[in-house]
Amino acid sequence: MNLRQIWLDEIHQDSRYGVKGEILINHKSKYQEIIIINTKNYGNVLMLDGCWMTSDKEEKYYHECLVHPALISKINPCNILIIGGGDGGTARECLKYNNILNIDLVEIDADVIEISKKYLSQIGQNSWEDKRLKINIVDGFEWVKNCKDDYYDIILVDCSDAKEHATGLFSLGFYQECKRILKSDGIFATQSESPESFKEIHLKILNLINNVFNISSTLYGCVPIYPSGLWSWTFASKDINKFLIEKYENIKSIEESCDIWNLNYQSGGFKMMPNKILKELSK
């Protein structure tokens, strides 16, 4: 028996979501505990403060669903903001599009980026070397508060769960600032937690976004390593007439580059709101 093999669990509401493997690094940054564990079935897996963030095997379930519903709507040159995204997966998916002019990646914890470059290189791939990607080590809420009006075509919020240093990224003030800095036909997208294991936070996010933006829609899918496995991503815009219109000229090539996302997956995901969530939103 390999004594270095251990079980590592995320514990949530009296349930455990775990993998077995070898700890490659356990690092305490200024903001959080960062663990990388190497596993047989999931490859390298990232845990932040006791919560699973991503894995070599499953990351595309998350990153492809956050990025592509927004970006296929854009054929004009795009200026993109990614808040969070320190593993590089969201940037990698954005850089598949040839109309990307600039990506500002705003990550509060530089250590997440450096550790991801070393241990999660399969996720970030060559995105870190692309000259269109600009790295900014700063709090995401502070960044948006200091941006000028109508600046970004796409805003993608790829952050950790709503606790401690990430709490502000799930607030009314944050969503209002994002709307202010988003162009009139721009698209805002955020991971919006699980309707099952994080039901109250999920409902709060959807209600706040519905109150701030003119239109919004939530896509449901799975990220098997996360609590309950069921997850969501919410998209919003100021302009009803230009929201999530499939018009990118190379959709077929984007589909072929993906393991999870395609137009059929997207279409089904936007129709999967659990009825208990629909009832709560209708109150």
Describe the protein.
- This protein is of the alpha/beta class.
- The protein folds into 2 domains: 5-54, Roll (Spermidine Synthase, Chain: A, domain 2), CATH 2.30.140.10; 59-281, 3-Layer(aba) Sandwich (Rossmann fold).
- The protein has 10 helices and 12 strands.
- The protein has helices at residues 59-71, 89-94, 110-119, 121-124, 140-145, 172-181, 199-212, 251-257, 263-269, 275-281, and strands at residues 5-12, 15-28, 33-39, 43-48, 51-55, 78-84, 100-107, 133-137, 152-158, 182-191, 215-222, 230-237.
- Strand 6 (78-84), helix 2 and strand 7 (100-107) form a beta-alpha-beta unit.
- The protein is globular and about 55 Å long.
- The mean pLDDT is 94.
